[in-house]
Amino acid sequence: MPPELLIITRNYPPQTGGLENYSFHLIRALRRRMRLRVIALGKSRPHLIWFLPLALGGGFKSVWFDAIPRIHLCDGLLAPIGRMLKLFSRSRVSISVHGLDVTFSQPLYQRLIPSCLRHLDQIVCVSRSTRDECLKRGIPAERCVVIPNGIPVEEFRLAGERHDLIPELERSLGRPLAGRKILVNVGRLVKRKGVQWFVEEVLPRLGTKYLYVIVGTGPEQEAIQDAVIRRNLQDQVVLTGRQPDRLRNSLLQAADAFIMPNIRIPGDVEGFGIAALEAGACGLPVIAAGIQGIRDAVIDGVTGYMVREGDAGKFADRIESVELDRDLIRSTVISRFSWDRVGREYAQLLAPAKGDFA
Predict the structure, then answer these.
(1) Sheet harboring 237-241: ordered strands across?
(2) Count of beta carbons in the 10 Å neighbourhood of residue 357
(3) Quick one: which of 115, 161, 177, 302 has the fewest CB in 10 Å?
């Protein structure tokens, strides 16, 4: 039987990152339900120079000679390829957009990518915020559909009871944890994540029993370290750098709250907030700024709380009073955001219809 769907992605393992994880799990979920052909780049960005023409040529072969009726592209940068395939074939072309691939502020990019997106058949937005950014750029609302990011729940199996994880964490962090409340942030340290703001404005409002563990690296790391020293919070903040998944999961299971204090940075949006799902899959409540794509990743009052952006007092109050059912958090995230659920939504959207050529 011929393939029903061609998928093109420029981000695929063994490269690592958010888009690579997204492409891998989407393709795996769809393969359980449809016949696929995949054109994927598993190498670093410099290889795009040869991959893009290869992907375009492979796309034309698939639609002209193999009569694949549907094509799906995995991020907005590939929109020009989608536009060319749409222009010279009868295939229906869809694309997923994630936020930054729509809002990237370089003028030429903003002239080209939204123009190409407007000519595709379907735009899959990972959040309502990303959909809003598409609408601002003249993409027809009837072509935009929201399907959230998924999470591979099998990677977040509980490792044991919370109290059993403390000795391992004490050894890894080099800090005694008895009697302390653990706050966690996991992710790339960029300005929009608001970590420096949280250290400067919120942590001093909390008592010394709180320990803020920051997992990840990025361009804001030095500024965060400077803020810790300036505020004399060395006993309350640990910057761990990158850590293996096991330690990350142990932290998410043993901590008291996950912190997402995002702030708005022009041209640099939070398209979804997958870290909130990772925390929720471990039963950890999330305290987050209620902005942008985070609004779709946190279910207010169920998997966490959303706080007004920049409201340091409210952040501190929520942290000190958080009481949510950890079993309910975990079951809610698994039922709504597992890749089994999200893959089913994609398969329903991308399956060939009666009117498609074959």
Answers:
(1) 237-241, 210-215, 181-186, 257-260, 286-289, 304-307
(2) 12
(3) 161
